[in-house]
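Hi support team,

I submitted a single chain yesterday and got back a structure, but I'm not sure I'm reading the token output correctly. Could someone confirm the output below corresponds to the sequence I sent? I've pasted both exactly as they appear in my results page.

Thanks,
R.
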Amino acid sequence: MDFTNRTILIIGGTSGFGHGIATLAARAGARLIITGRDRKKLDAAATALQAQNVEVTGYVVDAADKKGLAHFFDGVGEFDHLVSMAGGFMGGGFLNAPVDVIHKAIDEKLFANLAIARLAASHLRDQGSMVFTAGSGGRPHNASGAIVGNDAIRTLVQGLAVELAPRARANAVAPTWTRTPLWRDMSPEQIEATDKQFSSAIPLGRTARIDEVASAYIFLMENTFITGQTITVDGGLTLNA
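Hi R., thanks for writing in. Yes, this is the structure output for that exact sequence:
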């Protein structure tokens, strides 16, 4: 793996999977552009990455802010790969979750990433790629809007793959529940209980490490003959459905 003289833009690169991807890409010599919504977290992440002697530029960007996102892309320049972590999570089925919660989950997953793709396309260098984030492990009856959004990402990369070809590629990664700062609002006891619940259902008997998920994004950037695909990284959880 060698990303020397390659620029990778990571939307949501300050923590969790995004920071894990940035760390692996930095080790491979990439120049990094990372975004985050919180200035303090962004600065801390950039400082940690710069300690690896790589070039890192950070921008405060909210992917849900369409005008702010457009302004960011207007000034970002060209890059070789885009990684987007945009999208949240939700619980509840189609009948019991509030409609606005379902709508928000779909908007944050599909339409935010659609906006990112459309804005990023003209900045993507030849033979580059886009890698988006779907998800794995939820069910329509307990994560309705999230499931619709995740399935939409799978459809989005299939369409983008054809539209971008042969100049560039588009793929996605679909992780299941993993210990990341995304769950910062949960208590330690809730984190342990959730980890135990997923571990008992995953054939490999445990949840993933952040670097195991991050490496899938790196693989999709590196392999130049994969496009339109979504790689599920869930330890076999969906095989037990």
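A quick pointer for reading it: The beta strands are 7-11, 31-36, 56-60, 79-84, 124-133, 169-175, 230-233. Let us know if anything else looks off.

Best,
Support desk
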